[in-house]
Amino acid sequence: MGHPDDPAIVLLEHPQQSPDFWRDLCVALVKAGRQVVRIAHGEASSALKRRGTDAYTTETLRAILSQLPMRPVLLAAGDHAAAAISAVSQDGALLATGLVLITPDIHPATEIATILESLPALIITTAQGASPHGIAHVAMGVPHAEAVEIGAGEPLTAAECLDAFSAVLIDFLERRLPRSTPEYRLGSDARTLRDALGCFATGVTILTARDSAGQPVGLTANSFTSVSLDPPLLLACIARSSASSEVFRSSAHFAVNVLHIGQQPASIRFSRRDEDRFGATPWEPGLNGTPVLTGSLATFECARHDVHEGGDHIILMGQVERARFEPRRDPLLYFRGKYRRLHFS
Ligand SMILES: Cc1cc2nc3c(=O)[nH]c(=O)nc-3n(C[C@H](O)[C@H](O)[C@H](O)COP(=O)(O)O)c2cc1C
Q1: Rounded to a whole number, what is the distance in angstroms from the first to the last CA of the chain?
Q2: Which helix (H) or strand (E) holds 105?
Q3: What is the mean pLDDT of the chain?
Q4: 258: which of 174, 229, 298, 326 fits an S-S bond (Cβ 3.0–4.6 Å)?
């Protein structure tokens, strides 16, 4: 689960927590930018397990870890903890980047202090299953290890317990094993720059105009920005490579149609080649005959005010001659390369 480029965390799930707990923890980790490899209790064949128990063998775990494309954080619960500790006890830093133990059930004599010294480690215990063999106290004395007890005060509901677990875990991961944030530098990969710009959530518009033969033209654009109230100015940026850029550069009038959530099909249509953009989309002639998409969230009918060169785009500035809007619809949104909808009412 999660994006293959995100740092990985291997979960050795244990039935001491419910299947819902593990599923929801995975969702929280993926949201926090981690890639989760789930190994459910009882999933591997019994041949891979320690004889007579349900716990994994050290060899199995070392094999799993060494086959992953990146070194993960290893999270083990209950009696999987012993195998996890022993799997990373030799060359641990070559196999894993960190170790998280949830209410570990291990023998008190287990020599974990030296292991915890070589890897960032977190031990989470619950008030109910608190530190069965005092492992949390061992962690206290080790500089790289942290121990947290959850639910020491009031008893927690399942949801509160999950929230507390994920908060502690994600805080540990962010502090001790931070994700590397992608970086664009002038002259480097333009894709990274596009991804960075895609973090700015926008609405979606369709720009419309008529070409010199009077035919309607239009394209999907999210580079729309208000510029000035007095005079009333707005702008949009159009790629010089787009088929309609020259029409917008020379047309005396154009319209910006702000799309509502139901107009996603129109947005897709006006962003693809070889589509009958106006044939399949209801529209009507507006001021000066400029095509206006019927029932849009808002329309701004403009006289061309200015056109600036902006690298591989033109910056088309318009003076608003008429604006109309529909107050009862939700906008179509665009964020990180995907269409989105509002969460809030
Ligand atoms: C959500 C979204 C936003 C877009 N925003 C812009 C934009 O601001 N400027 C632009 O030139 N192209 C933008 N595009 C791409 C154009 O819609 C697309 O290249 C279209 O095919 C151009 O049409 P044309 O070549 O017929 O002019 C966007 C596409 C999508 C899906």
Answers
A1: 30
A2: none
A3: 87
A4: 298
Q: For the purposes of burial, counting CB atoms within 10 Å of the CB of 226, is it exposed (0-12), middle (13-18) or buried (19 or more)?
A: exposed
Q: Which two tokens stand for residue 33?
A: 């930018």
Length of the chain equals 345
Contacts 24+ apart (CB under 8 A), 136-141: 138/112, 138/113, 139/112, 141/113
| Ligand 1 atom nearest 334 alpha carbon | 1
Calculate how far, in angstroms, residue 271's C-alpha sits from the geometric centre of ligand 1. Answer: 5
Identify whether the C-beta of residue 299 lies closer than 8 Å to the C-beta of residue 312: no
Q: 239 C-alpha vs ligand 1 centroid, how far in Å?
A: 8
pLDDT for residue 49 is more than 50: no
Token couple for 182: 């992608």
The predicted pLDDT at position 288 comes to: 97
Q: Which residues line ligand 1 (CB under 6 A)?
A: 204, 219-223, 237-239, 242-244, 271, 273, 334
Position 214 scores a pLDDT of: 98
Q: How far is the CA of 73 from the centre of ligand 1 (A)?
A: 41
User: Domains of the chain, with CATH numbers?
Assistant: 8-176 (3.40.50.1820), 192-340 (2.30.110.10)
ipTM: 0.99
Q: Which of 197, 207, 271, 316 to mutate to test the pocket of ligand 1 (most atoms within 8 A of CB)?
A: 271
Closest by Cα among 303, 311, 302 to 237: 311
